[in-house]
Write the structure tokens for this entry.
Amino acid sequence: MKLGLSSYSLYNALRKGEMDIGGFIDYAAELGSEHIEIVPLGFDLTEQPELIDRIRSQALAAGLEISNYAIGANFLTNHDDAYEAEIERVKSQVNIAARLGVKLMRHDVASSKDVSIGHFNRQLDRLAHACRTVARYAAAFGITTSVENHGYFIQHSDRVQALVEAVEEPNYKTTLDIGNFMCADENPVVAVRNNLPYASMIHIKDFYLRPARADSPDGPGEGWFRTTGGNYLRGAIAGHGDLDLREVLRSIKQSGYDGYLSLEFEGMEDCRTGSRIGMANVRRIWNEL
């Protein structure tokens, strides 16, 4: 197992200009990361291609592997031209992943207000075709592409499995986010166990959970968002929230998974503090198991 930090964890500092991507790399190394994950939020590798070589060289100098490149995408388009254009855009991002030297790349698949299982089933073949096309392109670079369980439309463990099975390419798997199953009101311990055999990469994340209440229709207040079933979540420092992190990490360890664990912090605390404490908690719990 190799524990590291996603640049997404420092998004607030990157967005505010308090830190640039070089500063993120230095901070990840300071926390004892073994790898970094690149999520182009707060910077843009398409518009700033000079950052690609900088990231690669600075990570090498810091003794950090670059584990994964994660981008947004949406193949649920209204027109065939837009659908094909999105496939080509994601393929162009594979080129960036190759320049970064990564062997793993996560791209989003779909976003829709209609998250019903009927809509998912009707769209599955079209989504699988897009992902299959990208995966086959990425195979030439030795890159494994993946779908993450997020965005509500493909968030449940069985929907992720359905897509991976439909794509049916050996280099198409899932970036397994242990916390995101809570957004679909799914038990994270059970869902993680369900999808571990399909995982190319694991994200570590934690949430506070509060149930929906009829006598409190506005929920707990600022900083919370709704789950598919109407409950409330707020990002937490890993190990501080309501996710059973110890049992999830136990399941991962007992499965024999020996890949990357990437911390994603998205709580209300300072992002540097949240990342530091979360990394320490994950490392401590893993070593205790």
Q: What stands out?
A: The first strand starts at residue 2 and ends at 6.
